[in-house]
Amino acid sequence: MGNYSPEADDVVRSETLDDVREPSMYRVLLHNDDYTSMEFVVEILQFVFNKSSEEATLIMLKVHNEGIGLCGVYTYEIAETKVDTVQVLAREREFPLKCTMERD
Predict the structure, then answer these.
(1) Residue from 95, 81, 37, 24 nearest 63 by CA
(2) Is pLDDT at 1 greater than 60 in this prediction?
(3) SS3 content of the chain, % helix, strand, coil (to 5)
(4) Is a pLDDT exceeding 90 seen at residue 24?
(5) How many CB atoms are closer than 10 A to CB 75?
(6) Which residue blocks in the chain are alpha helix, DSSP H?
(7) pTM of the prediction?
(8) Helix 38-47 × helix 53-66 angle, to 10°
(9) How many CB atoms lie within 10 A of CB 95?
(10) Where does the pLDDT of residue 5 fall: very low under 50, low under 70, confident under 90, or very high at 90 and above?
(11) Coil, strand, or helix at residue 25?
(12) Above pLDDT 70, what percent of the chain?
């Protein structure tokens, strides 16, 4: 059994910080170019960003018509991973698709 002694009254103090902040969020954007196919952009939006076919098509059209489209808003690490994934997949298919992130 343990060596418990009622005379030894150890005090444990714990302080918590009340200043808990939400993580910064980042917008992931696709940029239009003259070479990447619309079909590939839709595939990227579905595969990397889990968009439905309808959502992916609307975002692709926005990229095509306005030059840039929002794929989603994520924490830094997730946004960075998604940007990297898009870049790798685009290069594998020899497309110059540009994907960036910016603080929301």
Answers:
(1) 37
(2) no
(3) 40, 20, 40
(4) yes
(5) 13
(6) 38-47, 53-66, 76-92
(7) 0.80
(8) 130
(9) 17
(10) low
(11) strand
(12) 83
Q: What whole-number distance in Å separates Cα of residue 78 and Cα of residue 82? A: 6
* More reliable by pLDDT, 92 or 5: 92
**C-alpha span between 32 and 66 (Å, rounded):** 8
Task: Retrieve residue 104's tokens.
Answer: 């929301």
pLDDT of residue 21: 87
Starting at the edge strand that comes first in sequence, how are the strands of the sheet with 68-75 ordered?
Answer: 68-75, 25-31, 98-103
| CB 73, CB 6: distance < 8 Å | no
Tokens matching residue 96: 């110059």
- Dist. CA 50–CA 89, nearest whole Å: 15
Q: Are 90 and 97 in contact (CB under 8 A)?
A: yes
Tell me if 27 sits within 8 A of 17, measured CB to CB.
Answer: no
Cβ contact 81:28 at 8 Å: no
Tokens 């009622």, residue? Answer: 6
d(CA 94, CA 19): 47
